[in-house]
Amino acid sequence: MDLTESPAEQAFREELRSWMAANAPAPFDGDTHSLEYVDYLRTWQRTLAEGGWLGITWPKEYGGRGLSPVEQTIFLEEMAKAKAPPIIGGVGIGLIGPTIAMIGTEKQQERFLAKMLLGEEIWAQGFSEPNAGSDLGSLSTRAVRDGDDFIVNGQKTWTSYAHVSDWIFLLVRTDPEVHKYKGITCLLVDMKSEGVSVRPLRMMSGDAAFNEVFFLDVRVPVSNVLGEINGGWNVAITALMHERANLGGAAHVMLSQFLAGIVRAARELGVADDPLVRQKIAHAHLGLEVFHMTSSRALSKVGKGEMPGPEGSILKLFWSDLNQRMVQWAEEILGPYGQLSEGVFEPFSYNYLRSRGNSIEAGTDEVLKNTIAYRVLGLPKSY
Amino acid sequence: MEFDLSKPQKMLQDSVREFLSRHCNLERVRELMETPTAYDAELWEGLTDQGWTALTLPEEYEGLGLGAVDLVAVTEAMGSFTMPGPFVSNLWAAELIAASGNDAFAREVLPGVADGEAKVTVALLERGASWDPTVGELAFEDRGDSYGITGEKLFVSDAEVADSILVVGRLGEELAIVAVARDAAGVAVEAMPAMDATRKLYRVNFDSVSDGTLVARGDGAEEALDRATRLAIVAVCGELVGGMQWVLDTTVEYAKTREQFGRPIGSFQAVQHHCADILYFLESARSAAYYAAWAVSVDDEGAESAVSVAKAYCSDAAREVGNLGIQVHGGIGFTWEHDLHLFYKRAKSDEILFGDATFHRNRIAAMVIDGE
């Protein structure tokens, strides 16, 4: 056990911290649903990329830094501590870019990766469909070969950032005759193609960060197949592996900031000495500490080149449970203030509603537990 | 960054496991449960021969001088056997002496503890049953060359087999620790039968006991108690993790082999999710226990918080894991015949020992809200 940061890691953190202090933009002062906000975020992403802070784990030949997930985590932590704006191209950088770097053709890598880092092209992930959620392998968006093109018809849903995206990483069915996982192909699709349309979906929290995407006779050149034709399931697994590896990230920093807000609110409301309130705050604190410890444990494995063990697969479950409990405790402490959308305290009512999605997005609790049961514990598959 | 036991620590853990599988299997545990003290002199001799009962004691007192991470590795192995006897109580008391700053007393007592000639325990709780050492009422009497003790202590672990009892009480306005021989005149030890029969609890009555030795007083006593208790809590968290691992392994194995409706019950999602939840609690608890051990071993400024976080989390987790393990086993899991209840009861006694989750959340709240 040695949880101290190496001198190199400390130096990386220091350098980043001073860079952040000098370069992070003033908070956006306006409507975050506007196009101006999108421009603001694109500019921020370019600033980060030009500073050399994006694609930290990407290989150097694709514009990355070739560093380990430890530095990536330090980056996310410092971003969160500085309350820096989010990275609008995060899905591309975190999940699609590394996959293209691993299995794309040289041409694809040249064409896509640099623009992805700079935020010149924002990417969406076209996986879920109305009838293919947890059972992603049953997806039915069809792609039929026509000369040098595929013609795509179908619908994706819950597609985050599709309304601002330039490209989409799309899973389609290219062979309906074989077993479901064997007939899937991954296509890189230009969102400006004829026949692509986007309809925003509003979440119960009110914001419209995800969408339905419709494909009507959309032509996609065969050169935009990522990996093998009918080999898309492995491409998807590779991408999801990258997504999971990023998960611990800076969540503990954000949860700490959230908890600090709860403590401030409890003091202002004069309930910080109430034993029940104190139990809730302590419960939240110990939860986020344990979450951070398990994240560090998974990170230390990944840093040594090992696959994340059981710690990796339980992190998501832990985080969603903790976040949902924390907002519930915050609501109880705030009482009538907890229902307000703005005003005295942080917008806890937004957090309360948004957190309901935590145990659904990026793998439902139930599917994650099924996966733990048969992959980690070796129990027989139930389906 | 390295968040795992080192190779030598894993080897140490394996050797404890190997030793216990030969000398302390669950059949033997059941035999010891039925004895008045759950103490096995031969087992204890084996443990002391290996140096494991003096693992973290400084070398100047004949200990091995190892750290809290080594300790958590060892107690994790012990927890997976529900090893009976006074390991934790003796560790707590010995570390209290080592931390007391009373070098003369430490040199007199600890080498004997290290080589197995003597065992020690701590008497802290009173009628109020609080783990907060500052709320006790027992007052020592300063008699010049010795200290007098009158009063009663409850829930004293392994008092019957201890040679010396370290009594926590008040000396004027100060906290003090006074040692007294178990067989001194006026010391009466009476069993308090409890659910975990692998580790016995006692009521100890001190009736005008006259020849107590002052071990520490004031800030020194409080700091020594804090230090020793932190290490003992790390040991308990290791035990809990080891116990949870046993419950997981046993429960998953059962779910794979037990058939109902013509298929293994482990193929049903309701059962699978219980098993996944056990793993979730176990691995989260393991993270917390190892982290606390590391923080204590390097005297990290966050050690106090890390220890309370680990104790609160592991205590609740082990109880939940026991609940789930019994549920998956169904009727057989509820029987005396099945070994699950040994671990279930140990989890409960470990949950209570040194304060449960509510107690430690109170401490965490003081650190987080009041900055104490």
Strand order of the largest sheet of chain A: 1-4-5-8
Number of helices of chain B: 11
Mean pLDDT of chain A, to the nearest integer, reads: 92
The number of strands of chain A is: 8
Biggest interface: chains and residue counts? A-B, 50 and 47 residues
Provide the structure class of chain A.
Answer: alpha+beta
**N to C succession of SSEs of chain A:** HHHHHEEEEEEEEHHHHHH
Q: Beta fraction of the residues of chain B?
A: 15-25%
Helix-strand topology string of chain B: HHHHHHEEEEEEEHEEHHHH
Please give the share of residues in helix of chain B.
40-55%
Mean pLDDT of chain B equals 97
Biggest β-sheet strands, sense, barrel of chain A: 4 strands, mixed
Question: Brief description of this entry?
Answer:
Chain A is an alpha+beta fold and 383 residues long. Chain A contains eleven helices and eight strands. Chain B is built from eleven helices and nine strands.
Q: Could you explain the architecture of this structure?
A:
By secondary structure, chain A is of the alpha+beta class. Chain A contains eleven helices and eight strands. In chain A, strands 1-4-5-8 form a four-stranded mixed beta sheet. In chain A, helix 4 runs antiparallel to helix 5, helix 7 (251-268) runs antiparallel to helix 8 (275-303) and helix 9 runs antiparallel to helix 11. Chain A is globular, with a radius of gyration of 22 Å. The two termini of chain A are 40 Å apart. The model of chain A has no long low-confidence stretch (mean pLDDT 92). With 372 residues, chain B is α+β, with helices and mostly antiparallel strands. In chain B, 52% of the residues lie in helices and 16% in strands. In chain B, strands 1, 2, 3, 4, 5, 6 and 7 form a seven-stranded mixed beta sheet that branches. In chain B, strand 2 and strand 3 (147-157) form a beta hairpin. In chain B, helix 7 (218-257) packs parallel to helix 9 (303-329), helix 8 (269-297) packs antiparallel against helix 9 (303-329) and helix 9 (303-329) packs antiparallel against helix 10. At the A-B interface, helix 7, helix 8, helix 9 and helix 11 of A face helix 7, strand 9, helix 8, helix 9 and helix 11 of B.
